[in-house]
# Entry
Amino acid sequence: MTQSLSNPNPTILYMGPIRGGTDHIFRNTFANHFDGYDLAVAPFINCIGTNKITPKYVRVLLPENNTGMPVIPQILSKSAEGFFRLANVLTDMGYNTINWNLGCPYPQVAKKQRGSGLLPHTDKIRQFLDDAIPKLSGRLTIKTRLGREDKDELFKLIPVFNEYPIEEIIIHARTGKQMYEGIPDIDAFETALSMCKHPVVYNGDIRSTEDFKRLSKRFIDINRWMIGRWALVDPYLPMVIKTGKDITKPAHKVEKMKAFHDDLYDQYTRVLFGPSHTIDRMKGLMMSFTLAFKENKKTLKKIKKARTPEQYEAAVNHFFEEEAEWKG
Ligand SMILES: Cc1cc2nc3c(=O)[nH]c(=O)nc-3n(C[C@H](O)[C@H](O)[C@H](O)COP(=O)(O)O)c2cc1C
# Structure
């Protein structure tokens, strides 16, 4: 593992879970084309009842489908029993660490006291940990935000987390109410960090090496960092952070991005049901990918409007072959 510039500990980079983005195909393909990430937290799988385990959720986590990088599965649940049952199935499959999602901000999730919706309910979280932890056959990590409405919620929760054997806490330095908007509250993150006796992973808006340098200078004791959306924009970011060098020429980056795109497109074409699913998935990814390039509004419009594989392929090929210019 490469040392980062300003942190004497080896930097560990986590691929952040992005539902609809960083699925097993994306993770494996990313690892075939780019370096830098040490591991990934997978997008959450739901557990609704206590006994209902949905085979399709488990299938995407089969170890043979997850060979690109080490993966920590994530579960969204407010039921301790549902959680430990599903977690133990995953542990039997070979995952010795399972992450609990306490951060999902979407109102339809939060209003049911799941994800970030559970954060104001310290007693319910304590009860969950009391019930789940003794039954877990593997280790537990948590991904959280500063709170649902207010950062004070996490300050009240950390003393509770400190009482339990939790492997690490990943903190996205926003509240649930903020969704993905506004700037992460670094001061609140610092307070939470100072209170927490478990290892902490920083998450939120590491968009560039400059962001990483600024944060790693401030939090010299942290060596675990999670990057979500911004490596979907610039897949070179994790490697440049790790090595401290950006040696790839812009023209080569364009070629590499096309190869990455084509590989993803090929694989989604094989596994998704029908061309419209594949095109929708690829359009979503292209909306992130194209942010790394100088503006091409006309082509983007064509990509968005494409209905058939032919239209999509023509628009994307035109973009990469004729127009794409890396922002640098
Ligand atoms: C579309 C979308 C889906 C996400 N899905 C998940 C998820 O399944 N589990 C989770 O813990 N976080 C999820 N996140 C949050 C990210 O993992 C990350 O915490 C957030 O984007 C902030 O980090 P970033 O600025 O590096 O992207 C999602 C974010 C987005 C934008």
Observations:
- Residues 16-20, 43-44, 74, 101, 103, 143, 172, 180, 203-206, 227-230 surround flavin mononucleotide (CB under 6 Å).
